[in-house]
Amino acid sequence: DEGTTLKNFKLAHEKVLHLVVVRKDLNQFQHLHPEFDENTGIFTLSNLSFPTSGDYRIFADFVPTGAMFGPNGMPLGVTISEDINVAGSYTPQSIGATTRTKNVAGYEVTLSTNPQTPGSTMTMLSFTIKKDGKPITNLESYLAALGHSVVLKENTLNYIHAHALQEPTSAQTGTIDFHVEFPSGGSYKVFTQFKHQGQVQTAEFVVPVEGGATPAVPEGMDHSIHN
Questions:
Q1: Of 136, 132, 94, 111, the residue nearest 203 (C-alpha)
Q2: pLDDT of 220 higher than 50
Q3: How far apart are CA 178 and CA 162, in angstroms?
Q4: Count of CB atoms within 10 A of residue 54's CB?
Q5: Within the chain, what is the greatest distance between any pair of CA atoms?
Q6: Lowest mean pLDDT among 69-78, 117-126, 142-151, 212-221
Q7: Over the chain, what HEC string results?
Q8: 3-state secondary structure string, 65-131?
């Protein structure tokens, strides 16, 4: 904002920049990490490919050195975005059904949602992960967390990035939980990633929200929101 190139960043979940690429109908998703040149301040993504033509939005998540601190004592991250068009024949697709159990590369992932208290605007998203009918209790740490969730609102693409509440070193039950506060009513798509046996998997769910509230960052929560 001062016309100079930012070159100093804090590590945030093991990376200085998290790049999220989505087609704007929310039917394509990538979570990527460009290489950073500390001398020039330039991030380079040499292998980015778009699976289809269409309109895309690219979100960049980062924490500058010297960032302000939020009420939870964590440095405040920054999220910026840019829209691009990949030329070619393209028809936007439906956001999808609100199915609560998905099969992802042989894993059965089930989403359940529960408000923290009656009337609360804070929602717990719980993902139970099974394979061959048995809960997965040995998820591996992925970017310093047992799971990452990127939540995007249909049409406006309001953006939330949350991390699993369970620590990578804690005993596992086969379920990982995320706190999310939805800023307004509407349909949201949740892209949740977890790592098992060396492979990162992505489960996609559509969550309808009736109400919503002004976003807040509760104590101890790592949570960024971008409109």
A1: 111
A2: no
A3: 7
A4: 21
A5: 55
A6: 212-221
A7: CCCCCCCCEECECCECCEEEEEECCCCCEEEECCEEECCCCEEECCCCCCCCCEEEEEEEEEEECCCCECCCCCECCEEEEEEEEECCCCCCCCCCCCCCEEEECCEEEEEEEEECCCCCCEEEEEEEEEECCEECCCCECECCECCEEEEEECCCCCEEEEECCCCCCCCCCCEEEEEEECCCCEEEEEEEEEEECCEEEEEEEEEEECCCCCCCCCCCCCEEEEC
A8: CCCCECCCCCECCEEEEEEEEECCCCCCCCCCCCCCEEEECCEEEEEEEEECCCCCCEEEEEEEEEE
Tell me, yes or no, if the pTM score tops 0.90. Answer: no
Across 84-107, average pLDDT = 94
Token digits of residue 90 = 């393209």
- Residue 14: what residue type? E
Tokens of 177: 């939980």
Confidence category of residue 193, pLDDT binned at 50, 70, 90: very high
Strand-pair category, 18-23 with 9-10: unpaired
- Record the tokens describing residue 83, joined without a space: 């829209």
Q: In which residue are the tokens 């999310």 written? A: 180
> pLDDT (tens digit, 9 = 90+) per residue, 117-169?
555 567 899 999 999 999 999 999 999 999 999 999 999 999 999 999 999 99
For 23, 31, 49, 176, 201, the CA distances from 92, given in Å and listed in that order, are 9, 21, 19, 32, 24
Per the structure block, which two tokens stand in for 188? 């949201």
